[in-house]
Write a structure and sequence with these properties.
- The complex is a heterodimer.
- In chain A, 67% of the residues lie in helices and 1% in strands.
- Chain A has one domain: Cytochrome c oxidase-like, subunit I domain (Cytochrome C Oxidase, Chain A).
- By secondary structure, chain A is an all-alpha fold.
- In chain A, α5 runs antiparallel to α6.
- Chain A has a two-stranded antiparallel sheet with strand order 1-2.
- By secondary structure, chain B is α+β, with helices and mostly antiparallel strands.
- Chain B folds into 3 domains: 125 residues, no CATH class; 136 residues, Sandwich (Immunoglobulin-like), CATH 2.60.40; 108 residues, Cytochrome Bc1 Complex, Chain D, domain 2.
- A 5-stranded mixed β-sheet of chain B has the order 3-2-1-5-8. A 5-stranded mixed β-sheet of chain B has the order 4-10-9-6-7, with helices on one face.
- In chain B, β6 and β7 form a beta hairpin.
- In chain B, α1 packs antiparallel against α2 and α6 crosses α10.
- In chain B, 39% of the residues are buried.
- The chains are: A mainly alpha, B alpha+beta.
Chain lengths: 517, 388
């Protein structure tokens, strides 16, 4: 079986092939995206008008918690790992990933992690209801016993991420084609390399956090229990030491995708390649030293609060550099607006708006008003959905013809983009108003003055949700009935080794290393 | 193609227009009345120096962001219109310039330094809790607030009064739906008030947007913050840290009054406290205790153990047919007064009056078919507390 895939289910169960594993990651993450999305639909349906109509508050809290956990750990992170699996060997001229068996393992433990997590929905006590940030002691002393399933689920998901990251690091450092020096790597490979180091550094911190919870709950320790001499604020420090790099883990690969799409449809090389690499590294470094800006109301000393405020403001600088570079890449190019480009442009605009609100929230004295309101809900959906998910969608439209050898329907792609873009903004822009006017986040029900904008937001959310089914349709339609992709390059302006291979690429990608000049 | 472009421009600019609208409308608000519905767009200016400073910094940031956005998106849209392949624009080939990279690194740094100045000043002011005229201890519970006027011997619980029937749509919603409480925190205007914020169970956060105060209530910690309220009025706020299923149902209401009005309120309150203490010596009948017990139970216990006493399986135990409610009175007293360590069961001894405690325990032992016929009098509670 050296030269082709196995037949039947064995091809997937025992696969060590980077493309098959990448495909499984992508489909798994899309399934999780729909699951997490359906939780979001329940949330928005309940918030459509004041009063409790559909669910009880305790179930509402389970929905907000599971929505966050599933989207962050089940949808966004694995989708980018899937993209990395598919694209990194193709982009560096390798036959496969460096550690194919570990690749298989890192994917196949993932469904079990999420099965553990989702099974709590059907148990007495219910699913985790303490927010995706699971602050102690709500998640320890006051949690239902199902929290243990959550803890083991997080352990498994974390192990999967660490293995995936080690594999990416090993592949990028060892498997590059001759002549593919570090400073010639496509930016998607660079951003993933840096992301992988972030993951290896912080996933163990998350594992440590949930292990301390496990000890507190079951074995009588008091890491986070003030009554036993512990410290609930310690939980937040440890969690956000993981949690802040985590948000860059989510967004850096998205930067990589956009840095591939923008030059292609501008027909002009990426502006400031090396400054992009340095900016990404700077963001990664800063991500480790700003965590307590999530905690401006916990009662830190003044000096600590000032430090975290200043350090956080600094992140605006390298992030700005990246946005300016993308726009300068477009400047004086020869632009066309196919679906991947529309998504990439929307990414730049909406991510920048999310960046603006991020800058506003860096300012401690006013963040005290923004903290834990819908203003921050809006902010992180602008960077996570319009940032990471839009970039992911852009990447899928961009590389789908390469993966399948078939071309998606451009009109349908564009239509899907506009429904998605408009729905997203209707859903999340009004949440800025709600937050500024004083509506706290994670509220199952709200005072009457918030009714109007909540209704608007819900309508937008349903629209955005529907757009994702439309996306699923587009992808399946392409695979089943798409027209063959153009023989040469799919995209006129596309550069990179992946475009030197056939569409779909051969099973073992580059069996002889290409020469990179 | 061109119409699509126009749409793109329109949608991209909508946020900016809305933001500037937000700025304008807030300027109008300053003249009075809090906005609601569609006009609810921006941070209120509020009634303390803290909230005003937050508002001012917020508006500076908003306009700086709008300014940067106009320039950056302006260049982007210019390029999207002028440099289209469909117009026959040939791509340039430039792809780096150390000069511009340096420029757009240095300019943001300068903007940030300028912004850091007011932010630092305002933050330092926020941390200055010295020389307060009075101290209020705020304690968060699942799901209510307790206010204690330190040194005055006055303390009370402040709980949501919106009935469950209004939440579930069986009765109409009042004007202050989910923003109304049994007893507001009464504060004098013009005085520097220090808040000492803590919690007895999970983390809560006490927030009143018009006062510009938000502080986490953390078990085992006492956080400090302060406010000086400039104008009398009723200011409503919320709990802003997820604290369980009642998170949305523990609002804050502050009633700020002139100093003399505050002083007479405090004097009345002290008289009421003394009267309540007297009441604890009275002997009640079973019917009296059951009636008061039902009311107090629904207020303080039903959130977890439910009005029908059946609890929530897996989370909160049932009281109907339970070993505590049917077992010895002393154990029952112990659970209610001292709570159960390591669980969600709070110590109600310090939260409720002896009369309420006695009524609740009597009610729990006789309601829902728990027919023990036991009567627990307020004096029994008092004796139990003193006997500890």
């Amino acid at each position: 079986m050296a030269h082709g895939p196995e037949k039947g289910i064995g091809r997937w169960l025992f696969s060590t092939n980077h493309k098959d594993i990448g495909t499984m990651y992508l489909w798994f993450s899309f399934a999780m995206f729909l699951l997490g999305g359906s939780f979001a639909m329940i949330i928005r349906a309940e918030l459509f008008e004041p009063g409790m109509q559909l669910v009880k508050p305790e179930f509402f809290n389970q929905m907000t918690t599971m929505h966050g956990l599933v989207m962050v750990f089940g949808a966004i992170m694995p989708s980018f790992v899937g993209l990395a699996n598919w694209m990194i060997p193709l982009q560096i001229g390798a036959p496969d990933m460096a550690l194919p068996r570990m690749n298989n393992l890192s994917f196949w433990i993932l469904p079990f992690g999420f099965a553990l997590l989702a099974s709590t929905l059907f148990m007495e006590g219910g699913a985790p209801a303490f927010g995706w940030t699971f602050y102690a002691p709500l998640s320890t002393t006051y949690a239902p016993s199902t929290v243990n399933f959550f803890i083991f689920g997080v352990h498994i998901i974390g192990a999967s991420s660490i293995m995936g990251s080690i594999n990416i690091i090993a592949t990028v450092l060892n498997m590059r084609a001759p002549g593919m020096t570090m400073m010639k790597l496509p930016l998607f490979v660079w951003t993933w390399l840096i992301t992988a180091f972030l993951l290896v550094a912080v996933m163990p911190v998350l594992a440590g956090t949930v292990t301390m919870m496990l000890m507190d709950i079951n074995f009588g320790t008091s890491f986070f229990d003030a009554a036993g001499g512990g410290d609930p604020v310690l939980f937040q420090h440890v969690f956000w030491f993981f949690g802040h790099p985590e948000v860059y883990i989510i967004i850096l690969p998205a930067f990589g995708v956009v840095s591939a799409v923008i030059p292609t449809f501008s027909r002009k090389p990426l502006f400031g390649y090396s400054s992009m690499v340095y900016a990404t590294s700077a963001i990664a470094f800063l991500s480790f030293i700003v965590w307590a800006h999530h905690m401006f109301t916990v009662g830190m000393p003044l000096a600590g609060e000032l430090y975290f405020m200043y350090a956080t403001m600094l992140i605006a600088v390298p992030t700005g550099v990246k946005v300016f570079n993308w726009i300068t890449t477009m400047f004086r190019g020869s632009l066309t607006f196919e679906t991947p480009m529309l998504y990439a442009i929307a990414f730049i605009i909406l991510f920048t708006i999310g960046g603006f609100t991020g800058l506003m929230m860096a300012m401690a004295p006013v963040d005290i008003q923004y903290h834990d309101t819908y203003f921050i809900v809006s902010h992180f959906h602008y960077v996570m959905v319009a940032g990471a998910v839009f970039a992911m969608t852009s990447g899928i439209y961009y590389w789908l013809p390469k993966w399948t050898g078939k071309m998606y329907n451009e009109t349908m792609g564009k239509a899907q983009f506009w429904v998605s873009f408009i729905g997203f903004n209707i859903a999340f822009f009004p949440q800025h108003f709600l937050g500024l006017a004083g509506m706290p986040r994670r509220y199952a029900d709200y005072a009457l003055q918030f009714a109007e904008w909540n209704m608007v937001s819900s309508i937008g959310a349903f629209m955005y949700g529907a757009a994702q089914l439309f996306f699923l349709y587009n992808v399946i339609q392409t695979i089943v009935a798409g027209k063959p992709a153009p023989e040469e390059k799919t995209w006129e302006g596309a550069e990179g080794l992946e475009w030197t291979l056939s569409s779909p690429p051969p099973y073992h990608s580059f069996t002889t290393p290409p020469e990179v000049k | 193609m061109l119409s699509r472009l126009k749409r793109l421009v329109a949608y991209a600019l909508t946020p900016l227009l809305l933001l500037s609208f937000a700025g304008l409308s807030s300027a109008k608000e300053a003249s009075g009345g809090s906005p609601e519905g569609w006009g609810l767009l921006n941070l209120p200016i509020g009634v303390s120096s803290l909230s005003r400073n937050s508002y001012e910094l917020h508006m500076i940031l908003l306009w700086v962001c709008v300014g940067i956005g106009v320039v950056v998106f302006g260049i982007m849209f210019y390029s999207m219109i002028a440099h289209r392949k469909s117009k026959g624009h040939e791509p340039a080939t430039f792809h780096e310039s150390a000069k511009v990279e340096l420029l757009w690194t240095i300019i943001p740094v300068i903007i940030l330094i300028v912004l850091a100045a007011p932010a630092t000043t305002y933050l330092v002011e926020r941390y200055d809790t010295d020389e307060a005229d009075m101290d209020i201890k705020i304690t968060g519970y699942q799901w209510k607030w307790q206010y204690e006027y330190l040194g005055e011997g006055v303390q009370f619980m402040s709980e949501l009064t919106t009935p469950e029937s209004a939440i579930y749509g069986d009765t109409p919603k009042s004007e202050f739906y989910l923003s109304e409480v049994s007893e507001p925190l009464v504060l004098p205007v013009g005085k520097k008030i220090r808040f000492l914020v803590t919690s007895k169970d999970v983390i809560h956060s006490w927030w009143v947007i018009d006062l510009g105060v938000k502080k986490d209530a953390i078990p085992g910690f006492v956080n400090e913050t302060w406010v000086r309220i400039d104008e009398p009025g009723v200011y409503r706020g919320f709990c802003t840290e997820l604290c369980g299923k009642g998170h949305a149902f523990m609002p804050v209401v502050v009633n700020a009054v002139p100093e003399d009005e505050y002083n007479s309120w405090l004097a009345d309150k002290k008289v009421a406290v003394a009267a309540e203490r007297e009441l604890a010596k009275k002997v009640f009948t079973l019917d009296e205790l059951m009636a008061q017990g039902e009311e107090a139970y629904n207020r303080s216990c039903a959130a977890c153990h439910m009005a029908n006493g059946e609890g929530i399986p897996g989370a909160f135990p049932a009281l109907k047919d339970s070993s505590v409610a049917l077992g010895s009175v002393k154990t029952h007293l112990d659970v209610v007064v001292n709570g159960v360590a390591g669980t969600g069961m709070q110590a109600f001894g310090g939260q409720l009056s002896e009369v309420d405690l006695a009524a609740i325990i009597t009610y729990e032992r006789n309601a829902w078919g728990n027919d023990t016929k036991d009567i627990v009098q307020p004096v029994d509670v008092l004796k139990f507390k003193q006997g500890q």
